[in-house]
Amino acid sequence: MLKSDWDLVDLQVFCQAARRASFAQAALDLGISGAYVTKRIAHLEKALGVRLFHRSTRRVVISEAGEAAYTWARRVLDSAAEWGDQTHSEPAPSGSLRVSASLRLGRQHLSPILALLGERYPQLDIWLELLDRPVDLLEEGIDIDVRMGEVQEPHLIAHPVKSNVRVLCAAPSYLARRGAPRSLADLAGHECLLLRERHQAFGVWRLQGPQGPGMVKITGSMGSNHADVVYQWALGGKGIVLLAEWDVQAALRSGQLVRLLPDHAQSADVWAVTAARTAQSPKLRLCLQFLIEQLRQGPHALRGLDS
């Protein structure tokens, strides 16, 4: 049974030691002695009735029970931090923040934005999960998921970030070899680079054109679940690609890629999705506001073809 003779200091020391995989480094980070770290973790282990770390002369490794305890401890510390935030007129977010996004969106935009967020709020523990697949926020413990396309899940709250479309592109070398499609139907006879993206149908491209929505089943000998991969293949002249305008605008301007069927595009607005209403969490509200502002207008913003 879980005993109650532990306090927040025990949890803070334990979480820092778990993150650093070192009692000595945790002591340096927290400005306390190594002996005190050992004492507090031993005290917590006694209170919880489990061994949190496997110890050796050279290092400490968190145990399976320690991993479960770490998740619980972070929730306790986050709750305590959020309560503290609500009692101050100018709250400073602290505790864990888990953000997810697709690979290219996360690496090119969210990664530097979250670095800025960490500088502004140094008490945050930030984790960025890059996944080119749908994310279950509740199951995976994600606070904010930045995604493109419609948000279908009724239990999620979608916060608009930026209007966006996907556009058709190919390298000049591909067009010199195969020619350019003149209609949406022509794409069926071209080498198209298949992308199994998070919330996008695979093997079918649906685009809006002058005559309304259209659909074409595309084929190709090369495909991937990472936009990074198909983007590089497109630059190398391997085929036609359908990617977000913010993702290809630099290559279009430089001439590395050429836009095809410019009167056709696929709607892919960018949303920041949460599983809880932000009014209930000052930390989440501030962090969400920062991300949206930076994605719209900051130095690492999502810029369209007309930006």
From TrEMBL:
Pfam families: HTH_1, LysR_substrate
InterPro entries for the chain: LysR-type_TF_proteobact-type, LysR_HTH_N, LysR_subst-bd, WH-like_DNA-bd_sf, WH_DNA-bd_sf
Source domain of life: Bacteria
Keywords: DNA-binding, Transcription, Transcription regulation
Regions annotated as coiled coil: none
All residue ranges annotated as the HTH lysR-type domain in the record: 6-63
Keyword flag DNA-binding: yes
SUPFAM superfamilies: Periplasmic binding protein-like II, Winged helix' DNA-binding domain
Transmembrane segments: none
The family this protein is said to belong to: Belongs to the LysR transcriptional regulatory family.
Name of the protein in its database record: LysR family transcriptional regulator
Source organism of this protein record: Curvibacter microcysteis
